[in-house]
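Input/output pair, single chain:
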Amino acid sequence: MAKKMMWLISLVVIVSMVLAACGPQPTEAPPAEKPTEAPPAAEEKPYAGETVTIFGAAQEEQVKKFEASMVPFEERTGIEVVYEGSADFETIALVRAEAGDPFDIYNFPQPGLMADFARSGYLVDLGQFLDDAYMKEQYTQSWLDLGTVDGTLVGVWHNADVKSLVWYPVPEFEEAGYTVPETWDDLLALMDKMVADGNVPWCIGIESGGATGWPGTDWIEDIMLRTTSPENYDKWTRGELKFDSPEVRNAFDVLGNIWFNEDYVYGGTTSILQTFFGDGPTPLFDDPPSCFMHRQASFITNFFPEGTKVGHDGDVNYFYLPPIDPAYGKPVLGSGSIMSMGKDTPAVREVIKYLTTGESTKAEVEAGILVSPHNDASLDWYPDATTRGFAEILMAADTFRFDGSDLMPGAVGAGSFWTGIVDYVGGEDLDTVLADIDASWPE
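Output:
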């Protein structure tokens, strides 16, 4: 009986299982859907879609490198920075400003033109959003002074060129036992040693077509910065310190003591007047050198013989033109470009603030086409020892001042000052030269 019972129970279980297998199957619940993840929020770009236009004189390759320096800023802010360049910068900029249709930002090739725009009411006061403490972190005081007009900050510097340079032939200079002078007295002693050795210290050329004489104005400006105060230099470029003043007269005398000594200058004054400035350094490359020093800005490398290697182990190198009076430290003469606002909008303000940073010059510095005046620009960005050396000279400067003739009214800076140099070298007495330049100053 017990076995039968067990058999019946087993049969019931088996039948139940068969029926279950043949019956409708329960629908399997679909797996729960995985929650959809929200896409990561795009980085907020507060000025997305806005365009800021910078108008200047730079063109082609320099513009490409400038725009490359703007890419990190554009990616962070959404602002598209467009650079428009024109050889007729001054005319177009003035016409637009006078018509009440200014560019967002002007890239002035000289602070004198910027000052004209500021005094005409065409530029924005940058001090409204760039405070003194911040600006002193970004630039040395000399750069801030050069961006200020009548007490108002209207420009920030983007790039600089160094003019206070002396070039020399490296192998022959070292073979002769000459050393780079640190002071003006050292330079004078070096000149006399070269003469005693039968060598000629300087090669100089100031011929430049309708601009003949301008290399001489650079000499005077460098000497002025080394023999009087930066304040007097500024007064001189504004016409407040006459050419016929003790300070300027002294600068001409210092120049004359070198230029009019036939032992010091290759070819004498005749060569100075007749030699094209671009050919000025050519005697450095004679074998043996016909001269051992040539004072000229960094751009003179464009006139060196093809294949010239520049640097301490090259064919030619440079040193900083030494100071004269220790009271005025180590000044540097140069040029460059400065940015000013024509329109005041939040996006334009952001671009101007970016232009106060070294990052805004990085691509151009790495390409070797400019020297950055910003305190936060790294020396590691420079592609070679030559361009890095320019930056080091600039960083070590106690004072930086812009090319003085470019700051003066055109009738003087690009007129009587140039011709005055020519007349002086040609034998005109200094009294007449200085009086004539002063007489040409616009009322």
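DSSP finds 18 helices and eleven strands in the chain. Confidence is low (pLDDT under 50) at residues 1-42.
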